[in-house]
Design goal:
Shape: globular
Strand content: 5-15%
Strand order of the largest sheet: 1-2
Number of strands: 2
Low-confidence stretches: none
Structural class: mainly alpha
Distance between the termini: 55 Å
Radius of gyration: 16 Å
Number of helices: 5
Helix content: 55-70%
Largest sheet: 2 strands, antiparallel
Order of helices and strands: EEHHHHH
Amino acid sequence: MNKVFLINGKKYNAVPFNFNTICDLEEAGVSIQEMQKKPMAMLRAYFGICGGLSNEDAGREIQNHVISGGNFNELYKIMGEEMNESDFFQALSKKAEEDAPKGKKTLA
């Protein structure tokens, strides 16, 4: 069942995190390595994917939402839920952690 969220009083369907979503995010300018470094760009890109909007249009919608008294909470919540429920995203994240360079060990 698709999750629905509101931005500017309009309903949008949450998009599951799968391989195509990750590719769409990269095409929108956010790689999975940059997600935590660029939270606003990530939010805009994900919302754009959900709404079929360009980065510029998604940014404008989010901006108008905030100006009208809204916040990022619901969108961050939905995005987080979709990441947590995605077997593909979880496997990808685990692989990235395993491949990350480990801290240097020192001999005592």
